[in-house]
Amino acid sequence: MADLVTFQLPQSVSGSESDVALGLTMIRAWRRDGIFQLRMSEAQLEKAQRAFESSRRFFRQPLEDKARCVSDSTYSGYVASGEELTAGEADYSEIFTVCKDVPLTDARVQARWPCHGPAPWPDETYRRDMKEHTDELGSTGERLLRLVALGLGLEVGALTALTRDGWHHMRVLRFPARSTTATRGIGAHTDYGLLVIAAQDDVGGLYIRPPVEGEKRRRNWLPGESSAGMYEHDEPWTFVKPVPDVLTVFPGDILQFLTRGYLLSTPHKVALNTRERFAMAYFHEPHFEACVRPLTTPGPDEYIHYGSHFTNMFMRCYPDRITTQRILDEDRLTTLAWLREDAVLRTAPVEDLPLPLHRAAS
Length: 362
Ligand SMILES: NC(=[NH2+])NCCC[C@H](N)C(=O)O
Ligand SMILES: O=C(O)CCC(=O)C(=O)O
Ligand SMILES: [Fe+2]
Description:
Blueprint: E1 6-7, H1 17-33, E2 36-39, H2 42-59, H3 63-66, E3 77-79, E4 85-86, E5 89-90, E6 94-98, H4 107-110, H5 124-151, E7 169-175, E8 184-189, E9 195-200, E10 206-208, E11 238-239, E12 246-251, H6 253-258, E13 268-271, E14 277-284, E15 291-292, E16 304-305, H7 306-317, H8 322-329, H9 332-347, H10 355-361
Parallel strand pairs: 1-2
Antiparallel strand pairs: 2-12, 3-6, 4-5, 6-7, 7-14, 8-13, 9-12, 9-14, 10-11, 10-13, 15-16
The protein binds arginine, 2-oxoglutaric acid and fe (ii) ion.
Fe (ii) ion binds at residues 189, 191, 268, 281.
């Protein structure tokens, strides 16, 4: 396969003619290749390098030290090799998940919303380096979404309306070298939000599945349609060659849903290599309470409550983690169902509201 297309992001995206042209070219690259590259700015590069250094330093520590970085109220923190499930099989990735760091005093934590709480940071340097890198990618994600909106023929702010206080998160990953018994890094899957923005070292191991004419793709947000494990052993898969100083970008489940499959959530998988490998996958996401509806003619029951999708997916990844146990023990799924109901009512087309609300709204 030829090299991936590489773009450079403008400092800001206003909706100019050149912004529209760039957005269209990005969409074309995704629909053909399923992925494109972004050249990193000097500032991005520095922050990414510092985050990689902190990651190497963290993963070098003894297992018992790393294993202390867990939380029973969030999915932030350490995931040991073999702990995460993808399509029912253990992944060999070792991970530190960075989710929104919400203080105990926050009303959402007090009200026991699922997935909300403080992050169990290993130390202050690690916290700072990961925050600077994710904040930088937050700005990248916003500019990308503005270009994507333009490329889809929408208002420049049509997609970023969903990402105010977005539930952005990141997986800081280490893959061990392969052994005679272990070759799987992470099984084939799609990720859950709008954009996946990833960085990797020079080792290699990531593969993506480009769009395939006529191929049925699952809707990962529906209970009966997990995309995990799909087409894992069927070609075509594109090796994502490590290239210095670039990020790779592809769509997640929410972009597939919004566009009714015009853009597909890019399936990808990771194979172990002969050397250990480090990567960071950042996810640019809607607000936890967002109720997302397709961009064209949504029916009343066509929506994804993003916080429910996120919670469902993380419970599926970590069925035995204390966070999952606590969600079940404290019946936090009922709280989540209330949040979903609220979100659905807030975004329902007026004619679909129950009659008393219908009157109040009109
Ligand atoms: N938390 C993640 N994004 N994990 C990516 C791997 C796939 C995940 N285990 C799943 O079943 O969907
Ligand atoms: O290792 C990579 O490059 C990607 C990891 C990944 O797919 C994930 O963390 O969801
Ligand atoms: Fe992924």
